Amino acid sequence: MRIGEIAALAGVTPRAVRHYHHLGLLPEPERLPNGYRAYGVRHAVELARIRRLTELGLALVEIRDVLADDEGRELAEVLDELDQDLARQEVEIRSRRERLATVLDQARSGGIPPEGPVSPALAELLQAIAPSDSAMARKDRGHLALLDSMVDDEQREVFLGALRPLAEDPELAARTTQLYTALDELADAPADDPRIAPLAAEASAAVPDAVLRMIASELPAADHPFGEALLGDFAPAQAEVVARLMADLLRRAQEL
After folding, report:
1. Which of 17, 45, 107, 197 is deepest in the core (most CB within 10 A)?
2. Under a CB-based contact definition with an 8 Å cutoff, are residues 230 and 220 in contact?
3. Which of 124, 238, 225 has the alpha carbon at shortest distance from 190?
4. Given this model, what pLDDT does residue 224 score?
């Protein structure tokens, strides 16, 4: 049989047959005087076996090892590893579909925030917080979405639990809105603006002790890589307010 005939018989392409020869999966047949390869039934059997193994998900390198083991031990080991890998993928796919279902529910109800898909808990919190035209408020929401993707479930519950009063306490929510407005006004101010110190003190005072206890262990220092990156996202005067706020919260947390 010619290469096209053996390929059709085994259910593969001539190109695949040549590739299998190149990788050493399929022995080269004898050639006729005219130079054409002469394939026999044995080659068709091997090709069919290779096709079945690829359909199971084995890589060609793995199939080469399997074919080199006449007693079949390698095949059993490889298939067992493949089964375990497929089981892990199955669990991961199920988990991803569950997360996707939550995001789809948010999308259908108009609940996906501008920051994009976030955890259900953060999406609920962002929906509850009154909308604001403040540039600082929008930046803060983006930072929350970043933290949401960085922390584990336990840390997320701590942070969001501490922030829920913003949505549930009208007085605290109004105070936060005023702080955002004041920070917006520092967008073009120098780092020694006289408004910085009192605004940082006011922002620190707005964080109740009960909330501070919840987040004390998670507060980053200003010289922490994340703290430095966070400060770099603000204008100079705003960054000075945030740095002083972080330092004062750390000091208060140590005194609790």
Report:
1. 17
2. yes
3. 238
4. 67
pLDDT at 69 over 80: no
C-alpha–C-alpha distance, residues 133 and 181, integer Å: 9
Q: How far apart are CA 244 and CA 196, in angstroms?
A: 9
What distance in Å separates the CA atoms of residue 120 and residue 111, rounded to the nearest whole number? 10
Residue 126 amino acid letter: L
Query: Rounded to two decimals, what is the model's pTM?
Result: 0.55
Find how far residue 177's CA is from the centre of its chain: 31
Q: Which of 28, 39, 35, 46 is closest to 5 using CA atoms?
A: 39
Measure the CA–CA gap between 116 and 179, rounded to whole angstroms: 25
Whether 192 has a pLDDT exceeding 90, the answer reads yes
Name the residue among 198, 223, 213, 224 with its Cα closest to residue 249: 213
Q: Which of 197, 205, 212 is nearest to 250 (CA)?
A: 212
